[in-house]
Write a structure and sequence with these properties.
Layout lengths: L1 H8 L5 H10 L10 H18 L2 H16 L2 H5 L12
Helix pairs in contact: 2-3, 2-4, 3-4
């Protein structure tokens, strides 16, 4: 049971979850874009890295999504999760 819970907690949050959170944070990190546009841009970035089979960039994007989802609004606004190589949404 503990192993299953550990695996579930390690999952990357979805683009929808992250963008919903950013909108709740007054759009910190999304440059005031609407939630739907944020989600679409995020999903496009994921699809691009999948098409390229670029595991390193996909892992970096997953790490950034996790960071954004788990950070406070203040941390996001201060750029705590900013990754210049993959920040596209």
């Amino acid at each position: 049971m503990f192993f299953v819970l550990a695996l579930l907690s390690a999952c990357t949050p979805s683009c929808e979850q992250v963008c919903d959170k950013l909108v709740d944070c007054d759009n910190d990190g999304t440059e005031r874009m609407p939630e739907a546009e944020c989600t679409e841009s995020c999903q496009s970035q994921q699809a691009l890295y999948d098409d390229w089979t670029d595991v390193q960039k996909r892992d970096a994007l997953d790490a950034e999504l996790s960071c954004l989802y788990n950070a406070t609004c203040e941390e996001v606004a201060n750029g705590t999760c900013y990754e210049a190589d993959i920040w596209a949404f």
